[in-house]
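Minimal example, chain plus zinc ion.
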Amino acid sequence: MADAVISPEAPTSPEHVSIFRKDYREPDWWVPEVRLDLALDPAATRVRALLKVVRNGDHPRPLRLAGDGLKPLSVTVDGEPARWTLDGDDLVIDMDRDRAEIATEVEISPEANSQLMGLYASGGILCTQCESEGFRRITFHPDRPDVLGVYTVRMSADKARFPILLANGNKVAEGDGDGGTHWAEWHDPFPKPSYLFALVAGDLAANRDRFRTFSGREVELAVWVREKDLPKTDHAMASLKAAMQWDEEVYGREYDLDLFSIVAVDDFNFGAMENKGLNIFNSRYVLADQNTATDADFDAIAGVVAHEYFHNWSGDRVTCRDWFQLSLKEGFTVFRDQSFSADMGSEAVKRIDDVRLLRAIQFPEDAGPLAHPIRPESYIEITNFYTATVYNKGAEVIRMMKTMLGPDKFRAGSDLYFKRHDGTAATCEDFVKAMEDASGVDLSQFRLWYSQAGTPKIGARLERDGDAAVLKLSQVVPDTPGQSGKQPMVIPLKTALIGRDSGAMLGEERLVLLRDSQAEVRFEGISETPLLSINRDFSAPVVMDVTRQAGELERLAACDNNAFARYEAGQELMLRSLIAGAKGEAIDPWPVIDAVRRTLTSNELDAAFKGEALTLPSESLIGDRMEVVDPDAIHESREALRRAIGEALAGELAEAQAMGAPGNDLSPHAKGIRKLKSVTLALFAAGNPARGAALAKAQYDAADNMTDRQGALAVLASLDGADREAAFADFYQRYQGDTLTLDKWFMLQAIAQRSDTVDAVERLAGHADFTLKNPNRWRALVGSFAANQWAFHEASGRGYRFLADRIIEVDRLNPQVAARQVPPLGRWRRLEPGRAEMMRAELERIVATPGLSKDVFEQASKSLA
Ligand code: TRP
Ligand code: ZN
């Protein structure tokens, strides 16, 4: 304090300002070296930082260091008291020299940190989360991803409470201190941006293993958890080793430090974080055993462990120049983890899952008020841009490049990208340029995928012309907020013609590149009536509007040799029926029933695929295909079709449900059988609720694994009667104290298809085990409910009020978590006028709330616009 020359004033900076991509400038100062010394204590942690700073170029500007809620206790320049001021939260230091050592000292309180950004406490563990702008909550620093430095971190803490002290890189020294404390010093030789800084202190135990890289270096691996959770870490460790191996084989990427650690914490805003050498995970993406985790949970763990590991190259070694480039690391890394998971299991089923997620979350985003390109042009709060668009559409964009270049040139492009930009902060443009330079393929027009938002709509119609067939294509890229009159994009469409009678391919699959608003493609030598199989493997993230002849979808659903396209034909067949039903048209369920029967009883299809194909399109997906969403009509239509299938195929469904696989068998085959078991149970119950409930209760009671148990409980959740109550009571008793599993108990009640679900969630929000402080628990109840279309859109408007109340409540503690639940209210334009008005009113109430965070302000105000 004595060092202060100019005393800080209350911040006057305007609130909620937008940052624009076009305004990017290089930093005024570099910070090539950072030394931190932390005296860790949950209530009050002292942070001393020593920054080596170097003026970037010739300019007179002061050194501006970002802070967030920090008060400087001392600031020196080369050991002398500094001339400094606070501008809002930023520390601004007068600089009369071009390089200097800046020392600052602050005090922070991890246990008072409810935002879970910066240094915080979770279940007795102290840990950090710095992406995107959390480092500035720990110490003053430019805290922008293009400022890379080498970090040395010394920390001390009470030895009994915090026996394990971890940070990025390698441990270089340790020892005991006074009063029962100990200390450790860590050094990370790789220059990194501040958002990759991490530190953990706690009473942790490790599952340890080793990995030998392709050049023969030995890497120590550790998965750190609380002692009691050690038995649940084997799958995460196995996934990590598989991911390391895969990245060597598929991308030629080798790990670069002597140690790689994963730490699991219970309170975490997102899935996990790729801090260099020290990944910190939401415990739900680490902990699993057959009794508490479903097969989907196991797969998610493998996917997230791989994702974070892959970031070591796509994110850490090559990072982002600024946050507008987020998709550079996230889109690419999601693509890499998707490919990894496909290679570990079934490629077709993985693709179906990924596309389902894209359609459920990204397509609505692209069609709504928050639409943005994968490389956004502006933001108020960057955390709001960790979206399905940046991540999942971003991954689709990378996938399209691979499809267009072919695997070898794509790999050459990836190699060139890593070689050129290793150790630097790069842009999306750098990535595309590397792909272009390595392949010789011109990607000029393709770059529009980075700048234009909105899901392209592709029209397709096949016409016969003698013994040729002509494919007539069109594309429209819809207007989105702030963007209209868009240019046509490059749309890579894997296309094949299939003989209607023979069911065989008529010629080879072709990659059609649609570049204009309209195009025609000729297929010569077509001797048989052709069926159009297009956008095979979902080669482009677009909405297809294909003109079909009667019977065409049925035929494709039975014989298309592209698994994804075959699935798609079946889904489209269902969708058409569901939409017609929702519009009140009389529908004939038999084409769907017959298609379902053929799939279910097929000898060539595997169980996992059947499980996907037998899952009806969701109510929100049906709504996305309609002009005006009437949630009740959609629900009734879908339930009617499920009932018709359940009644007509009761015998076949019961037979598939009777199959099973031992819970400890995690092979793709066993997972497929379990998936089909619960999917068929649900359909059976739709046809016969009373017998369905009994069958579900029996499956619940007999389960030796969580997949079967949760699958049964999910069916019971939507039924009435004593079996339901008994199963929920049992589940609660059985897993009390097991936080992750209790999340399922909340989630299953929030997604129940019942007319009293709003009552249930209101009651559960008052349950002793509900807490606003744990993001997983909050999402299990509130997030799940907001995704339950029928219940959320209850005509009374109570669902909207419930969500808005919870958002306002949690915003005071954790704005990031609050802001992520605003988008469901933002869909008001799609709803009938009565509901739309109530949704708007809730958004207005949110925006008018005093003291609202900029996170929620941005989402809610943009949703109203
Ligand atoms: N970079 C992380 C990932 O994709 C995402 C993440 C983890 C994150 N924690 C966060 C993003 C907190 C914003 C805020 O793997
Ligand atoms: Zn990521």
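The chain has five domains: 14-203, 318-450, 456-546, 548-687, 738-865. Residues 738-865 form a domain with the Zincin-like fold fold (CATH 1.25.50.10).
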